[in-house]
Predict the structure.
Amino acid sequence: MQTFPDMFQRSPRHTLIALLACICAGPQGAAAHASPPVSLTQLEDRARAFAPSARLAQADVTVAEQRSAALQAGSGAQLFGGAGVDNAREAVTDTLSRDYQRTQMHLGVRWPLLGTRAAQQRTVDDAQHAVEQSRLRRLQMENEAVLAVRRAYVRHLRSVERIRLADAFLRVRAEAQEQLASRHAAGVLLEADRLDLGGLFNIVQATHDSQSAARDLARAEIERLTGQPAAAVQTQEPAWPQTCLAPGAAALDRSPAVTLAQQEVDAALQRQQHARLEGVQASVSLAQSFSRDIGGPTGHSTRVGVDFSLPLQWRSQRDAALAQAQGEIDRAQALLALRRSELEAAAQQALAAYRLRDKEMAGHQHRQQAAAEALRIAQLRLNAFDGDGYSKLLTTRYALYQAAVQVVDGAERRDLAALDVLALGDGCTLAWHDAPAAPDPWAATVAALAGGTAPASAKAVPGETGLGWYVWQGQALLDQPAQLDELPPRSRRLLLSFTAAQLQALARPDGRARWMALRAQAQARQLTLELLLGEPTWVLPHERARLLALVESLRDLPADALHLDLERSQLPAAQQRDWSRHLIDTLQAVRAAAPWPLALTTHYRELQQPGFAARVHAAGVGEVVAMLYVNNPERTATLARPLLSAAPAGLRIAVAQSIESALPAQESSFALGKARSLQRWDALAHQLAGLPGFGGVVVQSWEDYREARP
């Protein structure tokens, strides 16, 4: 009989992942292979054209356009005419009368004037406003259809992830129950414990079934909104545009609801102009008539006529009409103010909810890492604790499953909150940014749940380490802490640099108080503040004392780390040869004097030297940020992977990227703008997240990022 430990070792990782993919695909697997999965971008395009609400809105636009065209054609001058035959008897004298028959015809043109013309123009204007409003409602319906598709996509994606985790846990169900029964029979496991542990699989199975139903419902909703079957929906991690998730990104004045209200104001103002001639009807006409008596001569006449009508109480009628028009204006303006206030409140609430959900992810991910580590330890201790060892192994596997599901739940809540923010942004509601292909973020967790070895450090979500920023004008941030609100949501660390005079001010009580105030606001946003000191000559023996004196003057300042920016290339050529040796001596001296964790920024080529990373780590450095200024995520990842693989255990390696305006496009993403730069940095984090010791992406610099276009 196969033993439980053997079961954990018998399945290669690639075979397991392939088997899990088949289980998740189910009977629809063949259809998925028959045609490529449908991306969210394609689903959105279909929803704009085929969603029932969007199609109805398009029909309303067509009707409004035709009605407006008909009224436009029917306004203005009108052609009139007529014809008739008279059979007449006219008295000539008291005793004599004349009988005759006459044919006549007239043709003319009539132009409306004053109130009549104003009434026609008001009707035409109202019809045109109706067209514009129907188009805005169509845009509104399209946006709502896209939002609904995105929500269904997120629910589908997260349901698939939960199913995958459940499948992985249930893979060992039969073998585990067999082992539990065997150990119960051998007297090393109580019946209550056997039933309790076996019930874990029943709980996970129930979750699997409910998530399968949720996945099917989400797919049905996608099919309803897109108007065609979705044979296979792509399960790609969404990468929402981060610039649209920042404070102030909502463009309320350009939202369809506010634009509709503004059009109501404009229409009311136009109606007020027309109301000044209310009740006054007039027209001028030009007509030509011809007549002929049967058996007699032909006659003709030309007529120019003006006619009008005016109510006896015209002034009262006009004043009432003007008052009514003003009332409509006031109502439309009140409605506009209401729509703006509603959207402002909605934007604030949506942004607050998103930031809260985004911050919650760190706790979920930390719990998953702890559970993965507990499972790894339980696997190592399995043979040492007979029955209790197996119980502990199953319970820690279930704890990892629960922690992973919590990460999925948190990601779903965060994504749905992000969609509420995006729906209020200018250009964000309809703009989808496809994330580049990334390694499977769940591969390690799935392998551990299915019986493989749990990783020592499992990252549930790529880019969990967050984004860092070099802030060279740290004093500006002290003076304007509101800049923290401009940081992209995934920002987690700030490396603050100051001038010598500013550092002296920080060492004084008033400067320390300002630092503490900024640090409190940063901690509320889950940001770390690190002191950034950069001067290349500090590695030289005769300059090292200045650095140590500076560190000593600041040692009472609470900071999360001390970051040294020391680069070989910034020294004169004659001093670069001994840079490595002097650097190690400097780092050791600073480590002995500084009360904070120590980090180093330097060029990535230094880490390519054999033994350099190990010497730096031995000198007391906990993190090295490698300056790798290549504006291509794939190329950057290719260069960074060997550095991470060769790093000693315990040393974190972060990657520095540039958005500096002074650097060429091959090195800096400044020309691409904020949104695309964030996409590239997220893509880089996705590609490196699975490697041990990866410390995230740090951007050079915050000041250049603020100056870049959106």
